[in-house]
Amino acid sequence: DVKLCGGRYGLGSKDTTPGGIISAFTNAKADKPLNGFTINVYDDITNLSLPVTEEPDIVPAGTTSCKFWGLGSDGTVGANKNSIKIIGDHTDLKVQAYFQYDSKKSGGITISHLRFGPQEIKSTYYVKQADFVACHNPAYLAKYQVAQDVKRGGTFLINTAMTVEELGQVLPAAAKRHIADFGVNVYTIDATSIAREIGLGGRTNMVLQAAFFKLANIIPIDDAVKYMKAAIETSYGSKGQNIVDMNKAAVDAGLDKLVKLDIPADWAQAKDGPKPSAGKSDRADVQSYLDTVMLPAAAMEADVLTTSQVLPGVDGTVPAGTAAYEKRATAVTVPEWDSTKCIQCNQCAMVCPHAVIRPLALDADEVAAAPEGMKMVDFKNKKFAAYKFAIVVSPLDCTGCGSCANVCPAPGKALVMKPLASQAAEQDVFNATAYTVTEKDMGALTTITAQFKQPLL
Prior knowledge:
By secondary structure, the chain is α/β, with parallel strands linked by helices.
């Protein structure tokens, strides 16, 4: 028998991994155990942390572990709850699910952790080593360590229209090496386009749920389809037959339009590129916070931070004004400005909830200093003839809501939603102008002129 020595441990916490629990028992067996300790924390202030020396996969034999990376409001969590119910109700398998939600709710990140198996599942922690991983938002591929959780010979499903060559340009080198070295089976399906064509908008859940059941092979696929369509009748029956039919069509498409990729052998030798940057600030306290805390936290790697890094000065304070550097890059599609159609009403900037769209009035010096190829036009209002008018867009801040394109009253629309990757160059234009172009005296404050002022949220 091993008695834990009064440590502050969280054996019931989903953030406490098997390695942390093992370290607690290892400490208890030591000749001089640390009495009062923390696990899964790197505490360099009190030095009461126990080192984690191993991280084994201890789920029962025959258990299938799955991990789904989704976008808040895309239906991923709801689909996974239905999957758990279908498998639990129609098989003898034991089931378990945990769900992580970003505090940003709609448009934030969600991660679903599912386990199925013949034996009782007592794993009170998130999935770290998965037989099946699905990335429902392709913007996550370059931002988070999505692929590295797939076990040897496991399956990786990506919601994307990219070819293997295009995927190779997006995936980090570490992800490519993992896929090649571990023999990961990679599949793609363009669920975003399928859902849009069917009429479901951004609700990709049924397409991807069907793809999951086909690839995971937990229950016969014909039975899975029958159960999914029965669940659709129950969930959407009150919304009308048209909604039911669209969701059933999404299930069929999820089965038929999967693509298996042939992974290039040279992925095994992929070389790491430059480390990502959190941006540059002229304030030393902000720059230190960005590089030390915000960058790994934004990449969901904050577990590696020490207590002294998270609590500068051990008082818990953080510098203000850091949200502008977050650049979450969560959108699938972002707006592209067509200067030839714009009527300069600034309604797009007014409705944008994240200050992604900035109207600018540039004087002659600012026009000369503008990035090459930046789109700008003369003001339609002759009172501002001394300036050039421009709309700059921050693709990495956009959440893809489409409010700007929807509200645009210009004939033919001056804002059109385009794939995030196609707008990468616009971020450089935004960074070079949105923070440096000065505010001009635009006269009386109206819904149009107010948009030229610096947004403070």
